[in-house]
Design brief:
Blueprint lengths: L4 E8 L15 H5 L7 H17 L3 E5 L7 H6 L6 H11 L1 H8 L10 E4 L9 E5 L6 H4 L2 H11 L6 E3 L17 E4 L8 E6 L20 H10 L7 E5 L2 H5 L9 E4 L2 E5 L6 H11 L6 E5 L6 H7 L5 E4 L5 E6 L6 H12 L4 E7 L2 H4 L9 E7 H6 L8 H14 L12 H18 L10
Helix pairs in contact: 2-15, 4-5, 15-16
The protein binds N~2~-(3-carboxypropanoyl)-L-arginine.
């Protein structure tokens, strides 16, 4: 029998080493802001303000903690030796890109943290989690272990939650998590349709693929996740992203499409075979008609979609059943997009309201509102069974704001990453954070 369920959003709390290192080839914003001076404090406060605003509107809002950075255990694995300070200075001298990679605060983009299948879809009726291996980028490939620990700590009851390790970290099984996975459904508690969007087939060299930029997600990875989560054919659809869009800077599907409930909001360049995607989803969406809200290239050119991050918006169901689109501020700075948003609300479709969020610090690294959150659909019992210390409310917001104000710098350059004081500051801050959130010892330096 269908149980009542809610969509909870878990935002990545921006870590104290947020910086611009130009690490993501294929992600236009990351490359164009390389070496800019970042403001970690402002970044974290922008993220917290978004979480507070959405919690205040009645959405279930949670937090995923930042990881330990710079990550000394990874530097040791790469042959750097000595004290932590010596390791940092050796790495800075020999290969500053490696130091930048192990210092990235990239786990803030929790849409890439994991793929999550709600219990209504899975064979054993538990919520299934698989942290993404993020093997396409070195700085992101070191996230999945701690992500897995955090998720296990938050969703620990095995009667309700099942955790899988990340897929093998090899390009053929490149997995970018929920950024390439959208769930469509009637009510959240009903069995839904999980749409896995991949960039490339790894084991078929003749299949279509992007030519300029890498496809980070493979069909082989998507299928493996569906098998692990026990999704039947009736619950899963696999579709290829348009390779031309990847070559234009759409490095994840969530930069060109977002779905919620029975609504799929997407650009006409999103899919290689759009008609097939819509037919496959509709065929599995029992009891609901798929509402396709398609944006044409004439109205919003692909380049504007990429620079505004129109589709990297959160599409949220409000209390009255209507939908809210939470967009980044850049959408109001680009004329075609701003005009389109006004039309979207005026035309009377399922999306009734637009709310703008300032997440500029994250946007400069290619992360919009939707990148910053991981969606977890939970029944009432599952919500009760999870660790509630990570759920946002006014008191936690105040506590975390004070914590950020007390521990974060307001300027960080690439040279600062070798500062041993930064490492100390981060460990000190994170040690306090696991206490605030009640998460236990999830970091290597605490073990
Ligand atoms: N679309 C989603 N869901 N997520 C966006 C991730 C942005 C991230 N940027 C970075 O990792 C840049 C880091 C730097 O260059 O310093 C990435 O490319 O993986």
């Amino acid at each position: 029998m269908t149980q009542h369920a809610t969509e909870a959003n878990f935002d990545g709390l921006v870590g104290p080493t947020h910086n611009y290192a130009g690490l993501s080839w294929g992600n236009v914003a990351s490359k164009s802001n390389v070496s800019a001076v970042s403001n970690p404090k402002e970044a974290a406060l922008q993220g917290l303000a978004k979480m507070k605003a959405l919690a205040g509107r009645g959405f279930v809002q949670g937090i995923l903690p930042p990881h330990e950075r710079p990550h000394i255990p990874t530097l040791r694995k790469l042959g750097f030796t000595g004290s932590d300070g010596e390791i940092l200075s050796q790495a800075a001298k020999e290969n500053p890109v490696i130091l930048a990679a192990v210092s990235s605060a990239s786990c803030m983009w929790t849409a890439n943290a994991a793929t999550v299948s709600p219990s209504a879809d899975t064979h054993d009726h538990r919520v299934h989690f698989t942290p993404a291996n993020l093997g396409a980028k070195f700085h992101r490939s070191i996230e999945h272990e701690v992500t897995g620990r955090a998720l296990k700590s938050m969703f620990s009851d095995e009667a309700y939650f099942a955790h899988h390790p990340a897929l093998p970290s090899i390009s053929q099984f490149g997995d970018e998590g929920a950024a390439n996975h959208t769930r469509l459904c009637c009510a959240y508690g009903d069995p839904g349709v999980e749409l896995f969007v991949y960039g490339q087939q790894a084991f078929d060299e003749s299949a279509p693929a992007p030519k300029r930029f890498p496809a980070r997600q493979t069909l082989e990875a998507s299928r493996a996740i569906a098998r692990l989560h026990g999704l039947s054919d009736a619950r899963a659809v696999f579709a290829q992203q348009n390779p031309d869009a990847i070559d234009a800077g759409v490095f994840h599907n969530d930069v060109i499409a977002v779905g919620n409930g029975n609504v799929l909001f997407y650009h006409d360049m999103a899919f290689l075979d759009e008609a097939q995607v819509l037919a496959d989803v509709q065929a599995r969406l029992k009891g609901a008609e798929l509402q396709a809200v398609k944006v044409s290239s004439d109205e919003v050119p692909l380049a504007d979609a990429v620079s505004s991050y129109l589709f990297n918006s959160q599409l949220l169901t409000q209390k009255d059943g209507s939908m809210l689109l939470a967009v980044p501020g850049e959408c109001r700075e680009i004329e075609s997009v701003s005009r389109y948003l006004d039309k979207l609300v005026a035309q009377g479709g399922p999306i009734k309201a637009v709310e703008v969020f300032d997440v500029k610090q994250s946007m400069r690294n290619g992360g919009g509102p939707a990148c910053l959150r991981l969606r977890v659909v939970l029944t009432d019992d599952e919500l009760k069974a999870m660790h509630d210390g990570v759920l946002m409310n006014d008191a936690l917001y105040e506590r975390l704001t004070t914590w950020v104000e007390g521990h974060y710098r307001d300027e960080l350059s690439q040279d600062d990453l070798a500062d041993p004081m930064l490492l100390d500051e981060c460990r000190h801050a994170l040690d306090e954070l696991t206490g605030i959130l009640g998460l236990g010892s999830i970091y290597d330096f605490q073990r």
